[in-house]
Amino acid sequence: MDHRNDAALRFLETRRSHPPKLMKGPGPDRDQLTQLLTLAARVPDHGKLEPWRFVVLGRQTLDALAPTLRAAVLAAGQDEAAAYKAASAFASPVIVAVISSPVDSPKVPEWEQVLSAGAVCLGLVNAALAAGWAAAWLTGYAALDRDFGRSYLGLRGQERVAGLIHVGTRGDTPPERPRPDITAKTEWRP
């Protein structure tokens, strides 16, 4: 196998997300983030439809949106703890909203396009981690509430937030978590 990349395999073997509460500033600047977005966009995309787009939320926007998000969570009938948790997630230095934006296509089903947007989310987390940043893929109220998404993230039509990718400077190392038992999750058919 001439194309083996041991460094990439080691990275994948040890990669782990960094929760936003362990991140600190600064986040990547515009040029650094553009490079990460370019790498993230190298995903399976049958039909070259690009069924996703990015909304980059910088510190100024996150500071303005956090109290609005808190109020929206309370207005939806959730308790103060849920509202605090939702708003505090906006403390990350930078958040990239990856928007799933399916395109009408007679050849590529919508489900496959949604998966492509999910691949962009993982690609962005991995690109950020490989570049030395802390990164995590989350959703939560801001991503799941369609009204909030339309009003504050600019969702159009049937678009949905595939993920909110938090990016910042690494703080404390997160503890390792249990990993799946691959033998229990795999079925082999000869």
Descriptive overview:
- The chain is α+β, with helices and mostly antiparallel strands and 190 residues long.
- It has one domain: NADH Oxidase (3-Layer(aba) Sandwich).
- The chain has eight helices and five strands, in the order H-E-H-E-H-H-E-H-E-H-H-E-H.
- It has helices at residues 6-14, 30-40, 59-75, 80-88, 110-130, 141-144, 146-153, 182-185, and strands at residues 23-24, 52-57, 94-100, 134-138, 160-170.
- Strands 1, 2, 3, 4 and 5 form a five-stranded antiparallel β-sheet that branches.
- Helix 2 packs across helix 5 (110-130) and helix 3 packs antiparallel against helix 4 (80-88).
- The longest helix has 21 residues, at 110-130.
- The protein is globular and about 55 Å long.
- The mean pLDDT is 95.
Spell the H/E element sequence. Answer: HEHEHHEHEHHEH
Examine the coordinates and then state which fold CATH places here, giving the name of the CATH topology: NADH Oxidase
Number of domains: 1
Q: How is the main sheet built?
A: 5 strands, antiparallel
CATH hierarchy class name: Alpha Beta
Compute the average pLDDT. Answer: 95
CATH architecture: 3-Layer(aba) Sandwich
Count of alpha and pi helical runs: 8
Judged by helices, strands and strand pairing, the structural class is alpha+beta
Q: Outline, from the CA principal axes?
A: globular
Question: Gyration radius, to the nearest Å?
Answer: 18 Å
Summed up:
By secondary structure, the protein is an alpha+beta fold. Helix content is about 45%, strand content about 15%.
